[in-house]
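Changelog-linked ticket: nicotinamide-adenine-dinucleotide example.
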Amino acid sequence: MKIAFIGLGNMGGPMALNLLKAGHTLSAFDLSKAACDKFAADGLPIAASAVTTVADAEVVVSMLPASAHVEGLYLGSNGQPGILDSIAPGTLVIDSSTIAAATSRKVAEAAAKRGVSMIDAPVSGGTGGAIAGTLTFMVGGSAADLERARPVLEKMGTNIFHAGEAGAGQTAKICNNMLLGVLMIGTSEAIALGVANGLDPKVLSEIMRRSSGGNWALEKYNPLPGVMETSPASRNYAGGFGTDLMLKDLGLAQENAAAVRASTPLGGLARNLYAAHSLAGHGALDFSSVIKLVQAPKG
Ligand code: NAD
């Protein structure tokens, strides 16, 4: 299958490589030359522009930071046309970025007017899942479009859920990430409390992992450096899922909660804590660095 892949960041790059390894014909692009060079070195064919990638593509996949990037890419911005004008009718578009459900619906409606099918398919599983091809996809769109996308999604993930119509994948994703944001802060607090009492963080983490406090952060993503070799904490919080991306998702959850008059007090508090952490200069670090807010100073 000929696949255009746009957005080669921490997630998109490894996802595109998995499609390449599965035998698909790829044409990839990122606005960042460094990102293009990094994945070109792994054998990913890089196109000159986003418009060039979609020429002849049967499937287009995008993995961009936020709503404005996705809307700008497909519908255009600052007087520049979007790539939707260059995508042939009958093509399937899979947007895996985490963005506002309203933006997903807006772009999907514009695509449908051009005879292009689009699903929102945000993911969970982190960079480890992107590399291993074990992501969870939460899909919004028609069941028929999901079945068309399935052979492509299966090369990048192991769990594929149909959340509902266009935008529903995004709604499921922000519910999940609101919970993750809260969990990471709670886990950080518990570890910091134990360490302040002289406990060994590895022993404490293992006790909680196997007890009623067990959760994904303790299982796969311990926030304290040195506890878990594979977690971003142990590489100075580089790569992974940026604090500013978590802040964006918690903002989307709060906007959504306001729109449907839902009560999300811990989600609101979590958004404010990640905002404070970002303002302190940690926006580019992995979100698990939020433990710095509750850690005792060293020395
Ligand atoms: P990232 O910042 O590492 O990568 C995004 C890439 O998009 C960058 O390389 C950027 O240059 C590129 N880009 C931006 N606008 C572009 C455009 N118009 N055309 C081409 N390229 C463009 O982000 P990421 O961590 O890969 O996350 C991508 C999305 O996946 C986000 O919505 C994020 O919330 C979501 N997500 C991330 C993780 C994670 O663990 N990192 C997990 C699940 C979901």
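Closing comment: Example verified and attached. The pocket of nicotinamide-adenine-dinucleotide is lined by residues 6-12, 29-32, 35, 50, 63-65, 69, 72-73, 97-98, 123-124, 126-127, 240-241, 245, 249 (CB under 6 Å). The domain at 171-293 is CATH 1.10.1040.10 (N-(1-d-carboxylethyl)-l-norvaline Dehydrogenase; domain 2).
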